[in-house]
Amino acid sequence: MYCPTGVKGRRSTLKKSPEIVAGSFEDVVVEPWEEPAYYLRDQSAVTDYLVAFKIPDPGERATLVETPTYVTKSGVNVWARR
């Protein structure tokens, strides 16, 4: 899906998580995950999604997205012990 310029994400935090945890713990195990979170069936659904997340110019930006599409969420589980 199209990601508007200037919209800040959390990918940098995901990438830094293992390093942050390793600063205080040993035996760090990282389990990244990714899954489809939203199914956007048409341009109207894309516009609604962009409005909900306060993306500027949602109607115009929605036209840049091929539909149907999924919005994917990513995260990381970091397991550690001392």
Structure characteristics:
single chain, 82 residues, alpha+beta, two-stranded antiparallel ribbon, disordered N terminus
If you had to describe this structure to a student in words, what would you say it looks like?
It is a single chain. The chain is an alpha+beta fold. The chain is 33% helix and 34% strand. Strands 1-2 form a two-stranded antiparallel sheet. The longest helix is centred in the first third of the chain and has 12 residues, at 11-22. Mean pLDDT is 86; it is low at 1-7.
H/E element sequence: HEHHE
Instruction: Give the N-to-C terminal Cα separation.
Output: 40 Å
Structural class: alpha+beta
Sum up the overall morphology in one term. elongated
Summarize the structure.
The chain has 82 residues and is of the alpha+beta class.
Layout of SSEs?
Blueprint: H1 11-22, E1 26-40, H2 43-52, H3 58-62, E2 69-81
Antiparallel strand pairs: 1-2
